Amino acid sequence: MIDFKGCNTRVLIRIGLILTGVSIVIVLCLIPLYISRHGLSSSQNGIAAYPAVLYIWSGQDVSVSNAADFVAIIDFNESSSTYGQILKTVYLVSNISDRVGQSGNEPHHSAISSDETYYISGGLLSFLLQQKQIFVWRIPQNVRDGPHFLYAMDVPDACPDEFLAIGGAKFLVSMMCNKNGDSPGNVLLIDAEAATATSILNNASTFVNFNPHGFTRLNDKSLFFADYIRPVTLLGNDSSKIVFRNTVRYLSADGSLERTFQFNFSNEYGETSGVGQGIGFMDVKSIPNDPQKRAYSCGTNDNILYLIGSRITEPLAVFDISEVNNYVKRISAGLISISSDGTRLLMTFQMRFIILFNITQPEYPIILHVFDFCYDQTLDSVSILNSDTNETITFREYCAHNNNITGSHVLLHPNGENRFIVMNYFLKAGLAQFAGTRSVHVFKLNEQLTNFTYEFRFNPNFQFNYTSQQQQHLTFHSLNAYPHHVQYLQL
Predict the structure, then answer these.
(1) Strand order of the sheet with strand 186-191?
(2) What is the Cα–Cα distance from 175 to 178, expressed in whole angstroms?
(3) Are 462 and 393 in contact (CB under 8 A)?
(4) Cys staple from 169: which of 192, 302, 324, 374, with CB 3.0 to 4.6 Å?
(5) Global model pTM greater than 0.70
(6) Under a CB-based contact definition with an 8 Å cutoff, are residues 134 and 69 in contact?
(7) Which domain holds residue 329?
(8) pLDDT digits (tens, 9 = 90+) for 93-152
(9) Contacts of 295 (CB under 8 A, 6+ apart)
């Protein structure tokens, strides 16, 4: 007797396997099509170039009629015909009765809330004009439309620096100084939804010479803060009187000061840049998911990369980064970005270099690649416009006339992206005259994360050889802008 039931079962299984195989083939064939249509260039390590826009917080030169600080919205979709161009600008508008000033704020850092509802930005020098210092914007459903300004906040402290989204509509922000431009600074918790700002510090009186700049938050919500500079000393006329701080702080989750790491400053010739007194720590970033809770910080004046941690007794000097410049010590406004797997560190250095480290062994970082805005041969064919003279020159020529400084400062490497963004503008105030090329640049990492290359297509900075007004588009140069900070929003 024939078992039709068993036979049917075997047939159905075979048909199912065939259909499954066909489905897999179809999906595999559609992946490249999806990638090409959505501008997604992927790599084996999971990073890719995703369609996105950039929000760039920028100042504008006072020589511009009705000058105003603004947010530039940049096309960051590689498959777009307008990739790397400014799509639109959203300006601050003065409101004298509310102490909102559209200019003179010195746009500094910014952040996107964890729920991607709010964009927040700070004016480093707003307090000098008695203007409100922190600006809160609503992010629209279509992020290409740019943020909508909601309100400005005043706080009892001054010099807002780094913002960090910590969930919902809440941010932490480091306030570098008080309203006299001096110590102590503060750390505020901002709720953009409730429009409130409160200090997170517990026993604030214990924070001596506290001028926090960059900071990092660990998984247990404890924090490292880098003390940078006594800001009021930048407003004098003698650079030898500039006071840099020699400390990094470790705070518990409740804002209590747990540790103050003291760093030894040397007056020996050649050991520092020779500018002012002290080392100065602009940034500190923790190694993600490190069981020893370690972090890196780099000295502005001594150019040393230090490793610190809640369980490390004394700071460890792990690399003299001035090696990339024949051990010549220069002022460095370097910011740090560490990959989510804790194996790579990117940073700007001496306001001209971009450096990629392998930090698989944190005590022994290894340089994988160095890019020099001043003398990298790949830039010899790239023209720029001198903002002061409007002359067309190369980076090499610019550096030769500007003390080998291009202003390289902010570096943003969005999680999961194979591109990262570098801002060539630091500060133009008092004794800190480091405007640089006032431009924004993009680099692309290779699949092995051992190298990166300059993205020539990305250019919101300058436009050459247009023949009609219809072909002309906005650039940071045409806007006479000072672009300082960048945020990334994936489409």
Answers:
(1) 158-167, 170-177, 186-191, 196-199
(2) 8
(3) no
(4) 192
(5) yes
(6) no
(7) 52-466+477-490
(8) 999 999 999 999 999 999 999 999 999 999 999 999 999 999 999 999 999 999 999 999
(9) 216, 224, 284, 285, 286, 287, 307, 308, 309
